[in-house]
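[09:14] KT: can someone run the structure on this one? pasting the chain below
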Amino acid sequence: MSKSLKIREMIFAFMPKVVASLDCVSELDQASYSVLEGFLQGNKSLKSRDSIVIIQGVIDYMYENINIGNWKDVRLFLRQTITIATYLKLIALLDNYSELTDSVIKDLLETIDFGIMFGSLIHNEPQLLQKCASILNPFILQNDIAIENGNLKSKESVSCTVIPEGVINIDLIKCPSMERFYTDYIMQEKPVILEECMTHWPALSKWTDSNYFIKLAGLRTISIEIGKEYTDSEWTQKLITMKEFIETYIYQNKGATGYLAQYPLFAQIPELHEDIIEPEYCSFAETDDGVNIMAWYGPKGTVSPLHHDPTKNLLAQVVGEKRVYLFSPKDSENLYPYESELLDNTARVDPRSPDLNKYPKYQDAKAYYCVLKPGQMLFIPPKWWHFVESLSISFSVSFWWT
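[09:31] RB: done, structure tokens below
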């Protein structure tokens, strides 16, 4: 059996569950629904170039619809339609390619990643597109993906040894009991650095070599931020492969800053999720919403401006070091938040070099400070302001929960 047929057979095995998930998109317009139903039920053939064009038309139409208005207001069935249509497009592409070349695999993975980014989970096979990507992974020629100049080892971080004047050191404790963490820090809404709580993570050793990401996910499309920080007028976003991101931004010191920031990488690529373990401290939740896990990967000098989030946050440092300034919600007025509704959780003050002529109240603020090192986790309580700067190539993981 050819590689193409073998992959098609494995991906086609999900078809019954996808068919059973059509009820997810019952609110879809009749024309789009008929297209999906026809291909899923086998009434229309996927073995023609026209089928790819028709399915892509549905994807494009859904993409236009989800980009109208605010993302949070997008109807779920529109995104679920993208997932189902992406699945159909995969099969159509496999049916219409005579040979499974490297460029074909790249096209298939690009199709999958678009579907993951803009689609949504369907009821009967929530990890549908992620599983399709995992099926393709063994067929990628790893030697052709890795960067040729050998392993890209992250250099030792140069610690920021000069502690700013007037800052308050954050508590540092080794693997506290659940009771102590809950009583002394969650209940008190007090930040703390946790040590020896992630020594069992495979990521601590694996992620120091960037070729690991390239071999595992070099062809996968990700969304990165371009610019020093999101408050800059020239800040933008860009879709790029993981390999291109590492080659262009991680090890280059010239040009614009690229940052894989606040990105759901582990939902997109479950193989990377296997390298981390959700901390047991996240079990102290007030809702059943689960834990959101985000990746932060970038070169030295990336910055998250002073801002606050509504959730509890464990920021786990895996590679490199970051310096962090924290401020209590009580200091909000002294930090000069933006008045814009879009940025009202972001402050105008840069705690590294505050302009006291422009922001005189800042001198009354109490700054907490730390340099977060590999293997440490920082608990950031809800609504606490935090400014984060990478002191080297850095990879961090955020666990957000309520």
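[09:33] KT: thanks! Confidence is low (pLDDT under 50) at residues 154-158.
[09:34] RB: yep, looked fine to me
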